[in-house]
Design goal:
The longest helix is centred in the N-terminal third of the chain and has 17 residues. 25% of the residues lie in helices and 28% in strands. The protein has one domain: Rossmann fold, CATH 3.40.50.10420. It is α/β, with parallel strands linked by helices. Bound molecules: adenosine-5'-triphosphate and magnesium ion.
Length: 176
Amino acid sequence: MKQKLESMNENDRITKSKEIAAYLYKTEKWIKSKCIGITVSRKFELDTLPIIKKAWSEGKTVCVPKCYSREKNMEFRELRSFDELENVYMDLYEPSLNKTEVCASNKIDLLIVPGLVFDSAGFRIGYGGGYYDRYLQHYNGSTVSLAYSFQTEKQLPREEFDIPVEHIITELGHFK
Ligand SMILES: Nc1ncnc2c1ncn2[C@@H]1O[C@H](COP(=O)(O)OP(=O)(O)OP(=O)(O)O)[C@@H](O)[C@H]1O
Ligand SMILES: [Mg+2]
């Protein structure tokens, strides 16, 4: 799936990302949300930068993850501008510790959960760090995942620590 994502052409990536985002903006969860948690997309991932800008334009608070690989956990920090990001690894950007503040998980009312593959029950295969599975254990707000339709499967293997997302949106509309 990573190879498939990496081999997608740029036009396709941008067009489908826009279509998916357009569905997201129409959901009640998006409309009602005041504070969203969202990743800063890497080159081969669904483009989240327009979504972040849209959230800012609507007056929403935007929080992005900062991962701690030693502890295998992450926190969300409030991002007010892309200048508050720093490049931590290859094309991976995270909020700068000096420029941003932590956002408590109970402040986030909509979390956009990333992943590589999703099934119709909302289970997913992520990047294998278990960061989101750990975070979701203590998170009580809404969850939605955004994916290209080729990232969906009928059923994926699950493990006891996997936590499903509430909704999945693809360029074809609502998958879950
Ligand atoms: N709630 C948890 N508590 C402790 N360890 C966990 C928890 N959830 C997952 N893990 C550990 O993390 C490892 C990776 O989990 P998994 O393969 O589900 O990652 P993932 O879902 O792809 O990653 P992510 O959640 O970051 O998207 C697992 O092997 C497991 O040992
Ligand atoms: Mg998992």
